[in-house]
Amino acid sequence: MRIHDITTCDVNNGEGFRVTLWVAGCSHHCHGCQNPETWNSLGGQPFGKEAHDYLFSELSKGYIQGLTLSGGDPLDSYDDILPLVKEIKTAMPAKTIWVYTGYTMDEIESSRLKGILPYVDVIVDGPYVESLRDVTLAFRGSRNQHIIRLHDGKITAIDE
Fold first, then answer.
1. Buried b (16+ CB within 10 A) or exposed e, 115-151
2. pLDDT score recorded for residue 85
């Protein structure tokens, strides 16, 4: 897996103070995307031991509520993201994990991507649609996107 950045004390990409991992690679290429530099799966730098240890060090701070995975599309790096979220949930079960993805929840649930659901707390789903842009929405960019809250891999609430 390749990443573009790890940001700390992020309050823009989920509830509370968060650490955000910006994953390289996105297959959606949404028109008007705010992060087109993250589309190339060969961009950024490798997520190696140093980045891993830094991520865990920042997540372990008491005031950090959890991890947000963004990019790019983290689910386009599913084979690397799945073991990472499993490791985080095992080491720090009280930390919440948010995933921003251009895939819809229907696409996730009907594919192998559904394997990530038991390990995440919130999915912000759907591609960014510039014609549906709405700056009044919390934690999402366009009206077609949903904040989907999960518990044990099951949907508990959907913020429309």
1. ebbebbbbbbbbbbeeeeeeeeeebbbbebbbbbbbe
2. 98
Q: What is the pLDDT of residues 14-37, one digit of tens each?
A: 999 999 999 999 998 888 888 889
Range name among 45-54, 95-104, 112-121, 149-158 with the lowest pLDDT average: 149-158
Tell me, letter by letter, the H, E, C secondary structure of the chain.
Answer: CEEEEEEEEECCCCCCCEEEEEECCCCCCCCCCCCHHHCCCCCCEECCHHHHHHHHHHHCCCCCCEEEEEECCHHHHHHHHHHHHHHHHHHCCCCEEEEECCCCHHHHHCCHHHHHHHHCCEEEECCCCHHHECCCCCCCCECCCEEEEEECCEEEEEEC
Q: Is the pTM of this model over 0.70?
A: yes
Place of tokens 């700056």: 135
Handedness of CA 91, 158, 39, 27 (dihedral sign): positive
pLDDT digits (tens, 9 = 90+) for 71-86: 999 999 999 999 999 9
Residue whose C-alpha is closest to residue 55's, from 105, 7, 108, 125: 7
